[in-house]
Specification:
Belongs to the globin family. Its EC number is 1.15.1.1. The protein has helices spanning 21-35, 38-52, 69-74, 76-94, 99-116, 121-126, and strands spanning 2-3, 9-10. With 128 residues, it is mainly α. The protein has one domain (21-126): Orthogonal Bundle (Globin-like). The protein starts with a strand and ends with a helix.
Length: 128
């Protein structure tokens, strides 16, 4: 179990083998249903993340002061960031057939968050 001090514990699983064609299709079909409501789904994910890991809000000047989930849900800045997250996830799901592309997208996101936004390594573990 990984744990951010004082916050929810998470189980970290690792998988090194590629998805089968059937698994890719199942993920993509499920994702299509979620992505049809990408803004609301993204907001729900981001709000849940902030509720479970409140210290992660320190990286978001626009909404780091927000405590109540309803206030977060109504934030235009949070909604915009949620859409960016969903867009990145969509790129990954659309490219599950291309492991190099998936790795490239995730590496660029990780690098941007580590270098530009100065996100501490513990938060990368929380998200995996």
């Amino acid at each position: 179990m990984e744990k951010v001090p004082g916050e929810m514990e998470i189980e970290r699983r690792e998988r090194s083998e590629e998805l089968s064609e059937a698994e890719r299709k199942a993920v993509q079909a499920t994702w299509a249903r979620l992505y049809a409501n990408c803004e609301d789904v993204g907001v729900a994910i981001l709000v849940r993340f902030f509720v479970n890991f409140p210290s992660s809000k320190q990286y978001f000047s626009q909404f780091k002061h927000m405590v109540e989930p309803l206030e977060m849900e109504r934030s235009p800045q949070l909604r915009k960031h949620a859409c960016r997250i969903m867009g990145a996830l969509n790129t990954v799901v659309e490219n599950l057939h291309d492991p190099d592309k998936v790795s490239s997208v995730l590496a660029l996101l990780g690098k941007a968050h580590a270098l530009k936004h100065k996100v501490e390594p513990v938060y990368f573990k929380v998200c995996t």
